[in-house]
Amino acid sequence: MEIVAGRTRSRGSSAKSIARIRSIPVTILVCAIVVVGFVLMALLADQIAPYDPLKQSLHYRLQPPYWLSDGIEEGQPLYFFGSDQLGRDVLSRIVHGSRISLLVAFAAVTFGGVFGSLLGLLAGYFGKAFDEVIMTVADIQLAFPFILLAIAVIAVLGPSLANLIILIGISGWVTYARIARAEVLGVKEKEFVESIRCLGGNSWRIMFRHILPNILSPLIVVGTLDLARTIILESTLSFLGLGIQPPTPSWGGMLGEGRGYLDSAWWIATFPGLFLMTVTLSVSRIGDWLRDVLDPTMKGA
Amino acid sequence: MQQFLLRRLLRAIIVIWGISTIVFVVMRLSGDPVTLLLPPDATQADYARISHELGLDQPMWVQYGIFISNMTHLDFGQSIHLRQPAFQVAMERLPATIELATAAFLLAVIVAIPVGVLAAMKPYSFWDNVAMFFALIGQSAPTFFLGIMLILGLSLHLGLFPTGGRGDLSYLVLPAITLGANAMASIARLTRSAMLEVIRKDYIRTARSKGLGERLILFRHAFKNAAIPVVTIMGIQLGGLLGGAVVTETVFSWPGIGRLAINSIYNRDYAVVQATVFMTAILFVFINFAVDLVYGFLDPRIRYS
Hints:
The structure holds 2 protein chains of 2 kinds. By secondary structure, chain A is mainly alpha-helical.
């Protein structure tokens, strides 16, 4: 009986949440369209990109966007956002670069989210020494600017996609762990948990079947906000030359390359930067909104 | 109070020990440092000699002990690139970073707090919306993109500021804006929401009904009470500036410790990377420590327990 009560309680609150989601503000709708566009761009990059993002053309280096140039030579490709220092189409590189952003963001958020939530769950449920150790490690990590650690690790291990995902994932685990732990502390004393324990449910079953579903929504909110942070961190590392390595197109890497050509070819750095900013702004707006809707208690957190 | 300080100090030491240990583990993961130092035609005897000199023929726990003891003596080894002690190399770059971070922080606070307070005065008005729109942009624009756009617009197009390097005050303006933008945006947003919270309170109504001027109420009565969360976020942001400095210094060729770290990676100068990471960690821990102390003065309700 009590178990059923516990379940209905959570279902009841999620029904209310859905009702609140139905009244979506216009700005959030616009942000959602941007994000969907971003995902589609990454998935359909081969179909969307007008040119090969890696194809160089020495003859057409540093060409401005065609709608800004006075006249176009016969046979010149139409570079919508211009061409870069190696004569590659900036638009095509942006389209393909979105793949890296999306891939790293999802992989790193999943990795950091699962890892952090699991540790937070264990710390909250078992408490005592376990809790103490995990939370001290979390404090140590927060007491240090992560980018420097990333620099030290990448300096030694070398930049690679896997290293990048693991590093960025680890950079975010603390938030999930803290939220999961705090939520578990609240839920584990509830009657429905107590009664499952009385019925003989073991700890693992209680944690994953009964507590986890009840604490999922704040974790999803944190994950959404973390996506924006992850995309920025990846592009920052790529910009510094510590992330995605050339010739693979990535937004941060393009900004890094374009930096040297600001006075002759501003478009190389500007357009990828605008895409980067639009996407991260949209994702974090959606995250903020989700937080307010799903979990009003976290407002301003 | 004394106990609080002691516990904080202990925690700071644990953090610095943790960072050193991570650095040690990472450096040992890098493979054999001896082969990096030796020319390709070195003999087996050379190899053994260098290993012995660096203490690499010792068991791992002895190496760890030596490493920790060297750290406490601020001995990080020689910079391969500059042929100077790595600590000294990093130390020379420290003032530039502190100058940049201080300027960015002051700029952020000086702009953000009045903006936040004034925005809260007339919420949802035109100027409030404009200010909060810029705050949103400032919060989500990646540091390096903002820096590049400032160089493009204000340096290359309008010729107002130099594009990079360190010199007189004009060199400091763009890097300080770039580094401070994120903190500025967060502080402004938080000041606004903290003020909105406070303004609804009874004692503000009392102050109004006493006939006090709006400005006096705002800055004397309301802001003083809204300041505590604002100081909290200021502390967090101050620490964050150190991380942001790595990016800003790279964009503006600012000769600070962050740029040194990046350049040392390119030069495979691991001793210097180690020294910069360690030094930043200490600086960061020190800032957090100082921020904790400031709280106590601002809010006597915070008990040091």
